[in-house]
Amino acid sequence: MAKRYSALSLLRHALLPSSPWPRAWRSPAPKSSYDVVIIGGGGHGLATAYYLAANHGIKNVAVIERGYIGSGNVGRNTTIVRSNYMIGGNTKFFEFSLQLWEGLSHTLNFNVMLSQRGQIGLAHNPSQMDVLARKGNIMRLHGIDAELLDRGQVMKLLPYLDYSDAARFPVVGGIIQQRAGTVRHDAVAWGYARAASDLGVDIIENCEMTGFTMEQGKVTGIETTKGPIRAGKTAIAVAGHSSHVAAKAGLRLPVESHLLQAFVSEPIKPLIHHVVSFGAELFYISQSDKGGLVFGGHIDGFNNYTQRGQLPKIQTVAECAVSLIPAVSRLRLLRHWAGIMDMTPDGAPFICGTPIPNLYLDGGWCYQGFKAIPASGWTFAHTVAKGEAHELNRCFSLDRFEKGGELDDHGAGNWNYKQ
Ligand SMILES: Cc1cc2nc3c(=O)[nH]c(=O)nc-3n(C[C@H](O)[C@H](O)[C@H](O)COP(=O)(O)OP(=O)(O)OC[C@H]3O[C@@H](n4cnc5c(N)ncnc54)[C@H](O)[C@@H]3O)c2cc1C
Fold it and tell me: Which pTM does this prediction carry?
């Protein structure tokens, strides 16, 4: 049983530095067999394991991670959480996720540092304002908070934007979701890992899944670098690696893998108090607790598994930053990195069973995969436990492309919602 974190335990450890904190999660050797094996110890795999144990009582579960917890996209993103979507399917799913974020520190007894600082999407012409009004109306009809902002209100909230006559993209107005914000990403991985481990889930790090064992067309387990493991059910949750992991079971996914880069500037005094999205291009920026400006833009233009960004995209993203906030041109870029993301034809994910018995899939996560972690874990656990979709992930099926049920996200996350 992991130690419960509390103000008292903090005080005790502060006063007695000689007594070290215990490990946050166990580090067991793999058993020969589990009820459920989850491939991928990112946010989605760990959340799924936690909700399998917490919501469904399925505790004989292993999470197999080829690196270390937090080494994938869960620790590489720009940490934005929000529920300002407007197409059916996404709207309720992401709002459920935001509601779970709002209680997550308490649920996991781990401070995930949710900062509901508000996310502002900008409009640069009257037709973009019309789209924002429509989006706000749809959100409010679903009980989700949204407020339209005119130019004067945006100027008050974001005084550092370019409002000059020479502005390349004049700001007409915007929309704010006050409950949106950021979450500390590695705390999410550690919090779910600790809580899942505490319920009996085995988290096996530095263990790569190398193949499936199959009998009469059914998946019966996996091969790993630490030996074979039998599994009643096997769940894939490997983010940017879904297509080649699924291919090992003979399953061809409609997924391409692309890089998405993130950038952090040198630290400065508090300047940006919200998460801001640029309506004229795909660009988003916020300020970290340490003062660095954290920003990102589009995926790199071609498929890649290197987990290292390309120079041309750095230039495009920097151009967005400077045209929106001229003062940024004076800052030094401290670091940048990339993560590998699955991109589906419609930009929406898969949380579903597969045509192969006992094999389940959570993948196809691109720009929206971090904010989705709690709802994805919750609904994927439901699907794996019960063998059927939860009402919130019914639309994220593999067969939607055969049946005309695409969630037309244009393969670009929030791109077409923010104008
Ligand atoms: C730069 C960047 C910025 C982003 N910004 C945001 C944002 O602001 N908001 C948002 O909602 N989303 C954002 N995203 C997207 C989001 O981070 C991802 O969609 C999401 O984290 C993916 O799910 P995950 O956390 O489970 O992935 P991961 O953490 O990548 O987990 C998958 C794990 O599977 C493991 N794995 C792969 N193959 C194997 C194998 N064969 N055997 C065992 N393990 C294996 C990997 O090592 C990895 O740890 C961003 C992504 C990037 C790259």
Answer: 0.96
